[in-house]
Write a structure and sequence with these properties.
The complex is a heterodimer of chains A (189) and B (199).
Chain A: H1 9-29, H2 38-72, H3 77-97, H4 101-104, H5 108-128, H6 131-141, H7 147-155, H8 164-168
Chain B: H1 4-7, H2 11-19, H3 23-44, H4 51-64, H5 75-94, H6 119-132, H7 138-149, H8 154-161, H9 165-185
Helix pairs in contact in B: 2-3, 3-4, 4-5, 5-8, 7-9, 8-9
The chains are: A mainly alpha (189), B mainly alpha (199).
Chain lengths: 189, 199
């Protein structure tokens, strides 16, 4: 197609339009714009999936831990912090899920319901296994950072559980003391 | 390479060639999309002079991120997603935009056959819609432009705007209702059960 005459009303539009493709190609050829490597996109995609999985695993861990702690020790103020963590991880999983077309093409409420159901079901399955019991027994034998104080605060030590290692360090990082017949009291610092 | 060699290729094939380092193939894609991209951006930002700069940025961003494009998927929703982000960023700089809408929260029923026009009706509607685009909100404007002017499917619009497919249908329906109200207030062509029954 021939370009319009210089004095025609279409000429200005033609020049503008033509300029865009020219400017874009000129900038690319001059090296002003560089193509990002494919590996970067692969890394980003893998990181996103990995992050989403970590968040889901943490949500499942803390949800099943809440059930286990309630079963072993009953309610304690420390569990409020754990449940807040569960809510935080579920909300984070929900935000991350919107990056995936499987989720954003559906109503957000449905996406949240799917995540809640999945976390609840997997947590129930974990709760029914001796997973938390095993970790608690191990963490009481060896002073594992974060895990030992978590189980001590959430589940307590004493009548049925002996915190030999933790007894050597009566004040753990989360503010639990191991004195007293039922394994001490917990307070959040 | 001559442009004739690219003429028979699909957008996705051209994008694939660009990924292999063929800048001419990308140039051909830019030429193919530049007019409609400019029209789309001009309609969204209401004919501002910046439309040319934004269009240019869209193509430069597309080139930068072309390796992230999956050639098994359609190219047009991908480039319109970049255009959407660029226009929203531009409009945000002018005034704060509230993009969250509760219509993405709740499930919507699928639209019935009465809500889907045939090609002739669609063409007719697109001409009439253009008259009232300026009166609509950004959300309504975007879906109408993508559906009637850029001819993207509901599925593709959902990918561009990252919203549920049913919400696309609801937004189009609401936008048409808004136009109907504006048109009837101005003594326009709206009448009857359908928006433009008196055509």
């Amino acid at each position: 197609m021939l370009p319009p005459k210089a004095d025609s009303p279409l000429a200005e539009k033609y020049m503008q339009t033509n300029n865009i493709s020219q400017k874009v190609i000129e900038k690319i050829k001059a090296g002003n714009v560089k193509m990002k490597p494919r590996s970067l996109f692969i890394f980003q995609a893998i990181s996103l999936v990995f992050l989403a999985l970590v968040v889901i695993v943490l949500a499942v861990f803390f949800t099943s831990f809440t059930g286990f702690a309630l079963k072993v020790k009953g309610y304690s103020p420390f569990l409020v912090a754990v449940v807040s963590g569960v809510i935080l991880f579920i909300m984070l999983a929900w935000v991350l899920s919107k990056k995936f077309s499987v989720f954003y093409k559906r109503p957000l409420l449905l996406g949240l319901a799917i995540i809640l159901m999945a976390v609840a079901m997997v947590s129930l399955a974990v709760f029914l296994t001796p997973f938390h019991q095993t970790i608690m027994d191990y963490s009481q034998q060896k002073n594992v950072p974060i895990i030992s104080p978590l189980y001590q605060c959430g589940c307590g030590c004493g009548t049925s559980h002996v915190c030999e290692t933790l007894q050597k360090t009566p004040q753990s990082s989360c503010g639990c003391s191991n004195d007293g017949p039922a394994g001490g009291s917990c307070s959040i610092k | 390479m001559e442009t004739k060699e690219f003429a028979g290729k699909t957008d996705e094939q051209l994008a694939g060639l660009t990924q292999q380092g063929n800048v001419e193939a990308f140039g051909f894609l830019v030429k193919k999309y530049q007019d409609r991209m400019q029209r789309y951006i001009k309609r969204i930002i209401q004919g501002h002079e910046e439309a040319n700069d934004i269009s240019q940025n869209v193509f430069l961003k597309a080139f930068e991120n072309i390796q992230g494009f999956n050639t098994k998927q359609r190219f047009s929703p991908w480039i319109y997603r970049i255009a959407h982000n660029e226009t929203v960023n531009y409009l945000r700089k002018k005034k704060p935009l509230l993009l969250f809408d509760f219509d993405v929260f709740l499930p919507h029923y699928n639209l019935g056959k009465d809500d889907i026009e045939n090609e002739a009706e669609k063409k007719d509607l697109s001409q009439k819609i253009e008259r009232f685009l300026g009166e609509l909100s950004l959300k309504q404007k975007e879906v109408l432009l993508l559906y009637y002017f850029q001819e993207l499917s509901y599925q593709e619009i959902a990918d561009v705007l990252k919203i549920p497919i049913a919400t696309v249908g609801v937004r189009i329906k609401r936008a048409k209702e808004a136009i109907k109200e504006i048109a009837s207030a101005q003594g326009g062509f709206a009448s009857g059960g359908k928006i433009y029954a008196n055509k």
